[in-house]
C-alpha cells in the first residue's frame, strides 16, 4: 500500500532550483530515509510533501489526498517531529500533550484516554507534571515524538530526530522508532547520522542540490558503490606512504586532511605493508553508508 508518493516534483526560489524533479514512494510499514548535505534540498522537500510549500511542477499524493490541494486532509493522519524542540515551556508534560490534541479536534475525554499510553511510550509517566525546563534533552525529544503520535498517525515525518542527543538517548530514540515500525507505522526520516540511517531505514534516497544521486536499501547501495573493505591510515609520513604504497595497493585511495582512506577488495596486502611503518597508525573496517555518502556528495564543508 502506497502511503506517500511524489513524481517529478520541482521548486525554485529566485531563479535557483532547489528541488529538481524528485520522485519517491513510501509503502506502509517502512522506514524511508532522505539524506543530503546542508543545502541539499531536504527541508524544502519535506515542506512540499506536507503541502506547506507549493511545488512549481510535479504530483504529490499524501495518504490518498492530492497535495497541496487537499494537504490539510492528508495531514490529519500525519505526525511531525521537527528538528528543533518546539514544546511550550509554560506547560507541563501532560499539558503539552493535551493542548496539542486540540489541533486535531480531539476531545478532552479522548485525550485523557490516550494520555497514559503516550506517557508510557515516552517513558515519562513519572514526569507528567514536570515543566519542560526540568527535562533532559533526551526526555524532550521523546516527548516531541510522543506528541507527534497524539492523532495516532499512519505516517510520521522525523526531521533529524536525534541531533544533539548523547549516545544513550540516541539508542533510546531508535528503540522507540523500531517499536513504531513494528506497529505498522510508516516513517520518513531525515538525518545526518549515517549509522542511524543504516540501522533504521529499509530504503533511502541520497540527494544533492535537489537531485537524486542514489536510491535503494542501504546495504545494497553500499555493495554497489563502495569497495567492501576500508583501511584508514594516519600519522607521520602518511602522504609519502600513500604515494609510494597506498595507491598501488588500493582499488581507490583518497587523502583528506591527515588521513588516507584506502578502499580495497582484499585488505591483507595493505595491512601487511603497514606493519612495516611503525610511525603510522591504521584502522581496518567494513565499507559503510558514510563512505557511500561522501563518495556521492563530496567531502567539502557545506554551510
Write the layout of secondary structure elements.
Blueprint: E1 2-13, E2 16-27, E3 31-35, H1 42-50, E4 57-62, E5 65-67, H2 71-75, E6 78-81, H3 93-102, H4 108-121, H5 137-148, E7 155-159, H6 167-182, E8 186-190, H7 194-200, E9 203-208, E10 211-216, H8 218-225, E11 229-235, H9 238-249, E12 252-256, E13 259-264, H10 268-274, E14 280-286, H11 289-297
Parallel strand pairs: 3-8, 3-9, 6-7, 7-8
Antiparallel strand pairs: 1-2, 1-4, 4-5, 9-10, 11-13, 11-14, 12-13
CATH 4th-level superfamily of the largest domain:
P-loop containing nucleotide triphosphate hydrolases
Low-confidence stretches: none
Number of DSSP helical runs: 11
Number of strands: 14
Physical arrangement of strands within the biggest beta sheet: 6-7-8-3-9-10
Q: Which CATH-level-2 architecture of the largest domain?
A: 3-Layer(aba) Sandwich
Order of helices and strands: EEEHEEHEHHHEHEHEEHEHEEHEH
Written description of the protein model:
The protein is an alpha/beta fold and 303 residues long. It has two domains: 2-223, P-loop containing nucleotide triphosphate hydrolases (Rossmann fold); 227-287, 2-Layer Sandwich (Alpha-Beta Plaits), CATH 3.30.70. 36% of the residues lie in helices and 29% in strands. The chain has helices at residues 42-50, 71-75, 93-102, 108-121, 137-148, 167-182, 194-200, 218-225, 238-249, 268-274, 289-297, and strands at residues 2-13, 16-27, 31-35, 57-62, 65-67, 78-81, 155-159, 186-190, 203-208, 211-216, 229-235, 252-256, 259-264, 280-286. α3 (93-102) packs across α4 (108-121), α5 (137-148) runs parallel beside α6 (167-182) and α8 packs across α11 (289-297).
Amino acid at each position: 500500500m502506497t502511503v506517500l508518493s511524489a513524481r517529478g516534483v520541482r521548486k525554485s526560489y529566485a531563479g535557483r532550483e532547489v528541488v529538481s524533479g524528485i520522485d519517491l514512494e513510501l509503502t506502509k510499514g517502512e522506514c524511508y530515509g532522505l539524506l543530503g548535505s546542508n543545502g541539499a534540498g531536504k527541508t524544502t522537500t519535506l515542506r512540499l510533501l506536507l503541502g506547506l510549500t507549493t511545488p512549481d511542477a510535479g504530483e504529490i499524493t499524501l495518504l490518498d489526498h492530492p497535495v497541496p490541494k487537499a494537504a490539510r486532509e492528508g495531514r490529519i493522519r500525519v505526525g511531525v517531529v521537527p528538528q528543533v524542540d518546539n514544546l511550550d515551556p509554560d506547560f507541563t508534560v501532560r499539558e503539552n500533550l493535551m493542548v496539542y490534541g486540540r489541533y486535531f479536534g480531539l476531545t478532552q475525554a479522548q485525550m485523557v484516554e490516550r494520555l497514559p499510553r503516550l506517557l508510557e511510550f515516552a517513558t515519562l509517566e513519572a514526569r507528567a507534571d514536570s515543566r519542560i525546563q526540568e527535562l533532559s534533552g533526551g526526555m524532550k525529544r521523546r516527548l516531541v515524538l510522543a506528541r507527534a503520535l497524539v492523532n495516532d498517525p499512519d505516517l510520521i515525518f522525523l526531521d533529524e530526530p536525534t541531533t544533539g542527543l548523547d549516545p544513550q538517548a540516541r539508542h533510546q530514540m531508535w528503540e522507540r522508532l523500531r517499536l513504531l515500525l513494528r506497529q505498522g507505522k510508516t516513517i520518513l526520516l531525515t538525518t545526518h547520522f549515517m549509522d542511524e540511517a543504516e540501522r533504521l531505514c529499509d530504503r533511502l534516497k541520497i540527494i544533492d542540490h535537489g537531485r537524486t544521486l542514489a536510491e535503494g536499501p542501504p546495504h545494497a547501495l553500499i555493495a554497489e558503490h563502495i569497495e567492501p573493505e576500508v583501511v584508514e591510515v594516519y600519522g607521520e609520513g602518511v602522504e609519502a606512504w600513500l604515494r609510494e604504497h597506498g595507491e598501488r595497493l588500493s582499488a581507490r585511495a583518497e587523502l583528506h586532511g591527515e588521513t588516507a582512506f584506502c578502499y580495497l577488495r582484499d585488505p591483507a596486502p595493505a595491512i601487511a605493508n603497514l606493519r612495516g611503518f611503525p610511525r603510522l597508525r591504521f584502522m581496518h573496517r567494513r565499507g559503510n553508508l558514510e563512505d557511500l555518502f561522501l563518495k556521492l556528495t563530496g567531502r567539502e564543508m557545506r554551510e
